[in-house]
User: Fold these one by one.
Assistant:
Number 1:
Amino acid sequence: MASSEQPNRGRVEALGFLEGKEGYAAVGWVNRNLVNHQQIILLVNGHSVSETYAGKRATDIRSEDNKDSLIKFAFRCDELYSYLGNGDVIEFKCEGIPLDISGHGYQYIIKNNRESRVDEIIDKIKQGYVFDNLGRLIRARDEESIKKAFRLYEDLEQFMKERYGYDLIVCFGTLLGAVREGKFIKHDTRGLDAIYISAFSKPGDVVNEYIQVCFDLIEAGYMLRINRESAYVNSFKSGSRFVDLNYGWFNENDELNMAFGWYEKPAKGRNKYFSFREINMAGQMIKIPGNAEDILFQLYGNNWHIPDQGFKHDVTKRIIKTEYLLSYEDVITILHDHLKHTYQALKYEKENSGLKGTIKKVTPLTLKRLFRKVIG
């Protein structure tokens, strides 16, 4: 039984997906003054199904406690809800002690008039499945998939060096996993994130070079899914494994900019970036930027070193230099010239033609962000 001081230790403020609200995280907080370890475990019928850590200050949480001592956590396990049925018991624990669930005590009992399938999800977790940061239940990377991802990365690294003289370096979630954990992030089961830094700094030059890179990769036999700010690249050898190929540049103030965007003050210093150092990641020695920690702060903020299963990019706050992105017309042109009659070409045509496409093109980014924020 929980002690009388338990409510002050922490609380789950919103159940989100556990109440059937798809796309919404389960969020709460713990009091950093009352816990030694900020690891939070989500349990169903006594079985651990996911874990995360509290990190960000809970300034937006309503509580009678001193907000300076509260740190927030979040879970995104949306697919879990489809396995839950009548009588299933939800708990959240920190240091083995249950956290209060607002309005429900220390346990939330599922009542949805469905039969429980929790045994199925427990079996899958034992087989190596995890919830990714979009809430989907996906098999974690095994040794073979890691090898395929690294082989593809090495091939692209060689291609970029020989064709353009550029170093291809891990970035975003892959860099985060390499520095923080020495491996891929457990719940980041997508591709391998990599970036090249353009020698150019003017928008037109940077974009035209990225277009040429896409052309050259397609001509070299790679398969691409092209986006405005990056391209997913794979090959027949890599199968479903892919490299998310990003691009960046240094501006006139020697600040690192990236097409995908960032949240905090940019890392500064081309020379610092290119003072590469080696690090062991999942048994593979890879190069990372000399100022990797500054870049991770730029991308994720002060709490980059704290694992966060419920992390979600906030596009309304991300700094994006739109003049450095491909236009929709550029994407469609590349697809039609090199990937005719493909699903992606048809998809882009449908999404960006007619009235809907016109509105999409002329609407300022600030209004798009406001719309997403209101809808979210």
Number 2:
Amino acid sequence: MGGPALFLVNDKIAARLVAVDQLRLVVALFLIGATAQVLGALLNKIANWYVYVGTIDPAMKGSRRQKFAEWLIDQFWMDIMVDVITILSFGAAAWLLMTVFGKAG
């Protein structure tokens, strides 16, 4: 999440991105990647909590919520999807930064 923070403290970087009309896109890409990671972690935390509660609370054991949570934590592809979204969005933002600052002038 260092990208957007960098734009806030470095006027030269922000000004250059504004000049080429890329600031919003670069910031949005960094935020998309960070948001994907936060939502993925939150989803995993909630699902694991329901699975855990099912082991200590007989009323929760075998409930639809616990079964869904167990199914959810078994879906490895969801974790990979979150990581791919993050890599692609951070990568695209970094690429835009490199191309903007790699140009003369």
